[in-house]
Every structure is written in C-alpha cells, then in structure tokens.
Amino acid sequence: MYRQETTPIDSASRSSLPSILVSFALVLLLSMVGVAAIVVVAYYLPDASAKAYWFISRSSGIVAYVLLTLGVLWGLVQSGSLFRTRISPILSLGMHSYLNWFGLGLAALHGIILIGDGYINIDLPQVVTPFTSPYRPIPVGLGVIGFYLMLLLSLSFYARMHLGQKNFRLLHYGSFGVFILVTLHSLLSGTDTSSLWWLYAASLAAVVVLIVTRIASTRREKQGRPAKTVAAPAALRQPAPAQSPSRDRR
C-alpha cells in the first residue's frame, strides 16, 4: 500500500497549530483592549476621540499592509531555494504564519474600529460586506475581498495534507492577487496616500524583484539538473554476444 510521506513543513504545520491559534487569540485580545481604550477615551474626552477612531484605523491598516508585504516576501523565500539551506522549515513556516495572522488581526481592527467613527457613519454589516461602504465603496470593497482571501489562504495551511502539494501551491498563487487588491485598496481609499507613496512603491518593487529572482533561480536549477536517460524497451535491446567456452582448460 502506498504511504504518503510527510515533509518537515507538513509536520511543522501540525505541531505549530496550537501556538499559531494562541498568537492569533492574543492579537485579537490586544485589539479588543485597544477598542476598549478608545471607548474610555471617547467617554472622558469626546473632543479628542472624534478623530481617534480614524487615526487608529489608518495606523493599524498601514501596519497590516506592511505585514502582508513581508508575508508575501517571506512566502517567496521559503517556497524557493534562496535561503532554504540557511533557515529551518519550522522557523520559516512559523514566521510566515505569524506574519499572516498578525496582519489579519490588525486588518480586522482596521475595519471594525471605524464603526465608532462619527464621520463615516458605517455599521458592522457594511464593514464585512464588500462594496456597501458609504465611504468610497469600490476601494473599500477591494480591501474586504482581500481580507477574506487572505484569511482563506491562512486557513489552507491546516488543510495542506488534504489539498495536496500541487493544489496547495496553485492556491497560494492567490497571495499575489491579495497583495494587488490590498495595494489598490490602500492607494484609492487612503487619505494619506500622497504621504505614503514611497511605502507602496517600495513594497511593489520588493515583491517584483523577489519574484524575478525566484524565477531566475528556478530556471538555473532546471538547467543545472542532469538530463534523464530513457532506457530502451526490452524488445529493442540486442542480446549480448555469447562467449564461446575456452577450448582447453588448464
């Protein structure tokens, strides 16, 4: 019977599941603490809290975008052979999961905190439903779709054994689509895009450079592999000439 072999990354994904869930729960807990702090500030300092929700939403969104960029870059590193010999699979997978889940937690805070903002007047259904926001619905909707896709990709790590390596790799090509959606969301919906253009330009340049480097590295590996020799069919093989026995044995 065929037995499916497990790779170090597969075993690491199972062993690191509790720690990842604990980390994500910690991120959500800290996010809720931040929300509670905003509520306290709003109660005692209503004038100061008028823009506090917006400031926290923008800051958490920027940090979430940086973490998403780092997650995409780290995914390119760990899936190729750029630094595979220098970084253990467990550490590489743990770092990738940490970046994804931490970015998801901040992205959730980025959207939910706007419910308390009095300028936009947005509610929870409009936050979680794409293209229903009263503020720039199309760019905000792209960000909501990007969040859902990023959540799907993060959860797919725990179904890797069922998906198979080929399907898992094809699914994770969607991370580039998530990066594009979130970048468009940041550029088109952010009020401080003119001040942060260098951040988006640097992120795009870093992702493009690493993709090109990864493609070049993969081609060099394929060219360096020895060509496989195909054995001739048994019917076409010529039998070896029989050796005549020696006439005189001494």
Record keyword descriptors for this entry:
mainly alpha; 250 residues
Topology, please?
Blueprint: H1 8-15, H2 17-44, H3 46-49, H4 52-79, H5 89-112, H6 124-128, H7 137-155, H8 160-163, H9 165-172, H10 174-189, H11 197-224
Mean pLDDT: 76
Number of domains: 1
Unreliable residue runs: 1-15
Round the Cα radius of gyration to an integer and report it. Answer: 27 Å
- Give the amount of beta strand, in percent: under 5%
Roughly what percent helix?
Answer: 55-70%
Shape: globular
Number-wise, the strands total 0
Secondary structure category: mainly alpha
Q: What is the string of SSEs from the N terminus onward?
A: HHHHHHHHHHH
Number of helix segments? 11
What separation lies between the terminal Cα atoms?
54 Å
Biggest sheet descriptor: none
Descriptive account of the structure:
This protein has 250 residues and is mostly helical. It has one domain. It has 11 helices and no strands. The longest helix has 28 residues.
Put the structure in a nutshell.
With 250 residues, the chain is mainly α.
